[in-house]
Amino acid sequence: MPALRAPIEKQRKQPIQARSTATVDAILEAALQVLVHVGKEKLTTTLVAQRAGVSVGTLYQYFPNKRSLLQAVLRKHLSQVTEIFESTCKAQQGQALCPMIRAIATAFFQAKMQQPRAGLALYAVSADIDGLSITEDLRLRQEAAFAAALASSPERLSVEATLVAFTLQSTMIGVARRILESRIPVREHAGLHQELLSMLCAYVAAITVPAPPLRS
Fold this sequence. Notes:
By secondary structure, this protein is an all-alpha fold. Helix content is 70%, strand content 0%. The protein is built from 9 helices and no strands. Helix 1 crosses helix 4 and helix 1 crosses helix 6. The longest helix has 26 residues. The chain is elongated, with a radius of gyration of 20 Å. It starts with 17 loop residues before the first helix and ends in a 10-residue tail after the last helix. The N terminus is likely disordered.
């Protein structure tokens, strides 16, 4: 029988007023900072509350345990990346394929590499908190936005846009994760970014339907 997945933890209390929202934001930012500085094993709700400047009781009003807290941190981080991704895809609709993909991949790469230590820490903890289940809806949002942009291009693909979007997105995610987990120095990111763009454009060029010859 397949292993049963642990359920996704839910916040005990959803912030409604601006003050509550600010408190939750402070807790999530503090949790990320503590995670980066001490690691997942040493992170405690007490340390997070101290960092956020709130009581442990206040933290527990919103998050019942460490697991639910880390799940919320991961979702917030990836939601920010997804919003950047979606807005870039929308802005690139109607463009030629390679320039479009370069712009989308660049926005994604920059968002993922903006805080490399935070990204690495979240990758390290993701498997412990069922990160795939938490973020699947966000991945599907990115894929849908990417597919819509690809389908809007005046250039035609010989492969279904949703499959191309999945392939491109998976490549981008894989390269970004490999860079972070390999702890490649920031000074080398620009070169790797260009290699990624070359690879993505070469793939799309290989599956682009040639334009019909002009009639004389």
